[in-house]
Request: fold
Amino acid sequence: MNTAPVDDLAILRCPHCGGGLEAVAGGASCAAGHHHDRARQGYLGLRVAARGMGAPAAGDTAEMVDARDRFQGAGHHDAVAAAVRDAAVSAALAPGAAGAADSWVVDLAGGPGWHLGHVLDALPGMRGLLLDASAVAVRRALRSHPRIAAATADLRSRIPVGDDAAALVLKVFAPGPPAEIVRVLAPGGALVAAIPEPEHHRELVQGLKLLKVPAVKADELVAALPALTEEARVTVRETVTVDRAAAADAVFMGPNAFHQKREAVEAALAAGPERRELTVAVTVVTLRRPG
Ligand SMILES: C[S@@+](CC[C@H](N)C(=O)[O-])C[C@H]1O[C@@H](n2cnc3c(N)ncnc32)[C@H](O)[C@@H]1O
Ligand SMILES: [Zn+2]
Reply:
């Protein structure tokens, strides 16, 4: 249980104006007077409407976070977690890297914190900041690791983090505006991004006629970040065996949860075998901000 929160005010910024935050009764405020509540679980609520995008994003529901927790906890994405962790360790320990004791790993749309926890376990001197639109995910992440601080945030246009503040940024199946990623990375810092390949979980997409979410390809991400230099790229490709419940979780931990009913998906899965093969295909790319 995380009882002594990491000092998040050192790295967080006001999502309205980008100003620094100071602790005040009930939360934190910037010099311009924007107030942000601190929830009783310890995290700041920085989820404000992104400019020109209507209401703030709500992020994953409790049902989706539960499905993600179960699916990841069962080990079906262990190879992806290992690839993200190894890329983060190589990036943090490279000569000239920004990582120093107490430096920050910022996990964009980090969900319940599974990937960030693996990275922090391998980098014991670093602290983690997880941002996500989902309050359920943020609460789960805070409890998951003693060196994780977390805040709710809508990351479509702004990352509420100071300039040059992050030694590492993680972006695992997650949004994150390119110019903002460059702004928050310290000189010598690195972005580790995990991007699904078109065949990732294809058996579910084909078998259940699911919505195919168009993914940004690794090359498109690299092209959108000309200020960063590609340093490493690895693609995890394997087949895992999942039972029907895990197959349903794989569906409901993603955006299909907004378009499908669990009972209907479970009924469709019941018509097939109890266990099925699932393709895992994810590219992990490391991009460095020159020092
Ligand atoms: C596919 S999940 C990935 C979670 C985590 N990175 C992982 O791989 O386990 C996407 C995450 O993005 C969050 N999310 C969706 N839209 C968002 C937004 N506009 N701003 C911040 N987070 C968002 C969701 O709540 C969810 O936790
Ligand atoms: Zn402000």
Remarks:
- Residues 57, 59-60, 68, 109-111, 114-115, 132-134, 137, 153-156, 172-175, 254 surround S-adenosylmethionine (ligand 1) (CB under 6 Å).
- The CA atoms of residues 107 and 248 lie 26 Å apart.
- The chain has one domain: 8-288.
